[in-house]
Amino acid sequence: MEFLQQNWQWAALAAASGGMLLFSMLRGGGTNALNAVEATLKINREDAIIVDVRTADEFGSGHIPNARNIPLGDLERRAAEIAKSGKPVIVCCASGARSSAACATLQKAGIEQVYNLSGGMQAWQQAGQPVSRKRK
After folding, report:
1. pLDDT of amino acid 15
2. CATH class, range 31-126
């Protein structure tokens, strides 16, 4: 007890960081996340589908080659068209925030292999991965 009294700052820091980790796990933010290299491997080895949940304008400014553009607001309604492929799904957006919510939507729709592209298109481009401007 004396140790905690003398080092209360460290104990508080440990408790706060543990709480943040727990919150992240419960929220599902860290599960099934892939970096750009891992996503490329999954695309090449398992023929994963890329779903870009950004707006059409954002998608048109540059996207992962062969990605499908399904804006986040339309995703719940269009989840069945993704589910029937039976392939792994990698979801991306600009930074990874919208895609995290999209992953939860797709999992609720019964798609088991759903992955979030960590850092979104920003991380994809920083990793030197190819970007297309062709509309699909």
Report:
1. 72
2. alpha beta
